[in-house]
Amino acid sequence: MASQALSLFRRHGRSAFGRWLVSRAICWRAPYFASIAPTIHVLEPGRCVVRIRDRRRVHNHIGTVHAIALCNMAELAGGLATDATIPDSMRWIPKGMTVRYLKKAKGAMTATATVPAIVAATSGSEAHAIVEVRDAGGEVVFDADITMWISPRKVG
Predict the structure, then answer these.
(1) How far is CA 124 from the centre of its chain?
(2) Which pLDDT tens digit goes with each residue over 79-100?
């Protein structure tokens, strides 16, 4: 059983409408992510790219993208990259996240998550999803290191 998200993206992610549809399906499965209205642009083993538009709904009181919207975006990208990377016999859950706010986040944002190759194991271990969020000018405004707990799926 391959990652359901990866299978869905491979089947429908070649068009703008397909990427939008896959993004909505993921938000249906994990509703909190819908609060930032993300669009998944790339999903492949080891990498995920997610974008959000500049909308008032994700702004804070000073008109920049809210810190928690950036965290939400990073967790979505990191989680999907991890899900697409782990062996079918493994499962994952976020264990912790370290973030840095590097400059004001203004405008549309693009999060790119990378995850190293993960091999099947008989016990749990940590892996790190590294996420950079860039503004429309390509400047890194936020980064995150998400610690994922990777463990064997329970059988039965």
Answers:
(1) 21
(2) 999 999 999 999 999 999 999 9
